[in-house]
Task: structure prediction
Amino acid sequence: MRRSVALAVFAAFTIVGGAFVIAARADTAKKPYVVINGKVNHPVFEGYLRYGENCMRCHGEDGLGSSYAPSLVDALKHLSYLQFAQTVINGKKNLGNGMELVMPAFGLNPDVVNYLSDIYAYLKARSDGAIGRGRPHQLPKKAQ
Amino acid sequence: MKANKRTALTWSVAVGVGLAMGSSAAQAAGGTLQTMQNNAANWVMPAGNFANWRYSSLNQINTKNVHQLTPAWTFSTGVLRGHEGGPLIIGNMMYVVTPFPNIVYGLDLNHQGRIVWKYVPVQDPNVIPVMCCDTVNRGAAYAPPAEAGNADGLVILHQADNEVVALDAKNGKVVWKASNGNAKVGATGTSAPQVIGDKVMVGVSGGEFGVRGYMTAFSLKDGKQVWRAYSEGPDNQILFNPKTTTDMGKPVGANSSLKTWQGNQWKIGGGDTWGWISYDPKLNLMYYGSGNPSTWNPVQRPGDNKWSMTIFARDPNTGMAKWVYQMTPHDQWDYDGVNEMILANVKVNGKATPALVHFDRNGFAYELNRATGALLIAHKYDPVVNWATSVNMKTGRPNVVAKYAPGSRGAEVNYKGICPAALGSKDEQPAAFSPKTGMFYVPTNNVCMDYEPFKVTYTAGQPYVGATLSMFPPKGQSNLGNFIAWNPNTGKIAWSDPEAFSVWSGALATAGGVVFYGTLQGDLKAVDMKTGKELWRFKTPSGIIGNVTAYEHNGREYIAVLSGVGGWAGIGLAAGLTKGTDGLGAVGAYRALSNYTNLGGVLTVFALPKM
Result:
């Protein structure tokens, strides 16, 4: 079990490149985010911002989904970081049945790939119920 | 027998109205769009007429009998996405366009919408994610034989992938195709084309992808490009004459756009043209607006960013701009200026004026002299608007409140409590005007926001936004929308009906004294024009973001509307707003739109019961 997580993280390195530092930390800490008394560490906050810029327009506010794209609060209950990374980088298509679902490939978008683990940390915190809706408050730098 | 009498009576009324408007039923069977638009049996262009009134002179359905209105037939489009726009009706045919993949149907009104022809374009589905805010399409345009230069007339489709396709109105066969830009970099099609004379005018979407906006005129005959006018750039690309193109009554001078941008930012500067187009045949001027400058982070684009957020008056033959007016210089809120330009003769300060009336996203209702571009009135049409206190009538510039102006204290600052939100006091959902009452009927949003801009990098075909925002109702209020009647002579709201959600459906005003609009929950509503009192409602299968249409067939008046929740409304409101539940207790739990409606794609056609 432990090994498969490590493998997954290793695979993520090869895909994501620069994002490995935080991903590795996420593995050792078990959770990819830090939330203390409702306040979040910087990666989660950065993830919130980048989500707002690149993902919200389809997946809705606070990762809750919309008429256009599924809820990521729900999806991250069963998606691994690797699966998440693969989907964001390569995109995804589910065509037909009158509701074509197409997610673009963000692999070439520096505002997404450079913050991939941050976006994951934010969404995972939302999915786990560690943070609520809206703009999260950051922990003081020392506490991070 | 009774039915016959009724039919005869209706016809005489219809002809009477036709004559009164300088046309006749016989003429309206053919002729140009200019004559056809006066025959109330038809609905020949997206907004009903060139003046963008969304008004029907039919009065069979009126305040006394509208409560009997009942579905006559329904039609599933086969697509489950946001259905903006509405059908066109010409004679015995109705034309409907769906969201992506943009199927076009030719339906037979003699047989409850039997499918006469169906056109299914082949499009790369990779266009879907580069469309901002759902794969909507706001309808087709119709060109009669007299103007199209073919025997059957044309139905013109602006596809998601930015191809423009002219179909034979009788059989749906492709007559010509033209490209209106590269969808791979995010230049997409969502807007309805507008036929003017022997040309069709087509806008472009893509402000969230750094696409520099333009309006293109294609020849109806063969689809060849006649002219293209960019919103931003050198004078020969924006089709300005520095000496004769005016702004606030003065010539704009050379390089009026370029000098308001830093470096080459204008090349990815947005100002897209995805809204509605109106036309004044007497002045021979067409009118439309441009959208937000790119990016949403204002710190990255100092200057006024002309001519984003601008009303353009252009000569449809050449594209040359006669006058311009920029409503929101250096946009800091995403208040696109693309909403419909309604051409109506109103009394401004007691004086009859040929006006252009525009309810902007930024919360101000503007009235300009449509011949000269002179600014006559700029009043808030929602009292909660706080980003500006007023508009300076000498300079035309808004008096901006720095506290509510993202970027005023730099980027990476959260600017709180701005009203309206980015979706505006009103978005693309068009208002209606009644020449009988002289009033405007306006679907509105009642939503505020926090807006946090930050630095972004431009990558072709990738989102170029640079801000995040959260939305909520104004302080102390829980309704996210209103449907209002606006008096253009006083610049005041006559009545206002609160709605639980934004009203994202185009309104229809009728000579029967009834105004129609749809709600995001899926209700089509009929209200009394004078008071706003609800007279009737019907719950359609899905939320309504389409525009209500009236037509007459075999002596019977019909009301048609598309339902199919989506668009930005479906995205922003699906889960309810971030702070929408604050302090609402149990009520708050029901504030998510997803508790009311599901995806759909259905045209519902209503009529009074047959006697």
Summary: Chain A has eight helices and five strands. Chain A has one domain: 2-143. Residues 20 and 47 of chain A are 15 Å apart (CA to CA).
